[in-house]
Structure formats: C-alpha cells, structure tokens
Amino acid sequence: MEKSVYSVEGNEIKSIELDDEVFNRKVNDKVIYYAIKNELANRRVGTASTKTRSEVRGSGAKPWRQKGTGRARAGTRKSPIWVGGGVTFGPKPRDYSYSIPKKMKRLAMKSILSLKNQENRLKIVEDFTVKSGKTRDLVAILKNLVTEERTVLVLAEDDNMIKRAGSNIPWLGFLSYNRLRAHDLFYGKNVLMLESAALKLNEFYNNKKREVPHGGS
Length: 217
What we know:
six-stranded mixed β-sheet; 6 strands; Ribosomal Protein L4, Chain: A; alpha/beta; elongated; about 15% strand; about 30% helix
C-alpha cells in the first residue's frame, strides 16, 4: 500500500510503499487485548503485603481461661477475628509478570498499526530532529501535523534532543520502532511516525524467512 509522507510544515510531499501485512492487515482484537493485558500485568509492582497471625505483634498467651467466664473461647489475641490480629488470606509480595508467545505479540503490534492506519490516525512525517532541544520548537512542528491529543511519536533511533524537547509536552509520548508498546499505541489518539521508522517496521515485522542455501548454516 502507498502512504503519504508529510513535511514538518504539514504539507504532503511524497508517498512511500508500506507492507500491507504490517499496516493494512485484518485487525485481530483478541491478540490486542492479550498484549495490553500482558503489558499491564508486567508493570505491576506486587509489593502489597499484610501480616498473618504468626507475624503480628502481641502475646501468645490465652486471654482468659477456657470455661466459666461466660465469654466465647479465645486462644490468642492475634486471631484474625480480633482487632489488631492477623489478616486472613491477605496479599503477599508476588510477581505478576508473565510471557506471551512472540508471534502473538508481533501480531498484536501489526494489528494496532493497521487499526490506526484504517482509522486515519497514523501519519508518516519526514525525518526531522530538534537541534535546539527546546519544547517550543517541537510544539511548532507538531501543530502542523496533529491536534493536542494523546500522541505517540515513533522514532527510528533514540533521539535525545527530540525527547528532551518533548519531555514537557504532557500529551506526547515516544516509542522506538523496535520497542513498541501495545498499550501506548492503542490508546494514542494520533500516531506520528518518522519515515525511516516506517521503512524499518516494514523489515522488522516482515514474516518472510530468508532462504538458506543447501549446506549453509
């Protein structure tokens, strides 16, 4: 498929060829859900912790004798039914992270890119940088390309000057073409992609295997 490329002034200057397998495939909603769920689970810190009856502070002595007081039997003040006692089945530190198949994750990324393209929320822009590293210079460029909504800028390489300029823009996020995040891409109202990043994505998510000659390794 052909996709228009825009200049930093917001004018259409040319078009490039993008792989339909990456940018115009049938969207698979299920794998998008699984990819986002996996990323959110991997972000969880899992530090919540409560004390059991064996960990709370207090005496281990029997509060009163077993019979003859008219009160219910009690063996310890650390019982979960007492104020200040332990917690029954409370949370303990744990690791919530898990892995999903690489093929599923790749399919999710291609589905999200295709979804954004089909919704006309994906825009390719010529390669640029912000030499000054100033926010106002980057804002001046973005105003020509997108509205002030949640936007993701996909880079071909880490550009410290662009990231420095965009650090004060609350509605702008950055991703590298080879380290995409399903959550950020899916919930971004606009996806801006540098031309070089789009071309690299063509190769990065290309499923065609290289043919290895007989006897080769």
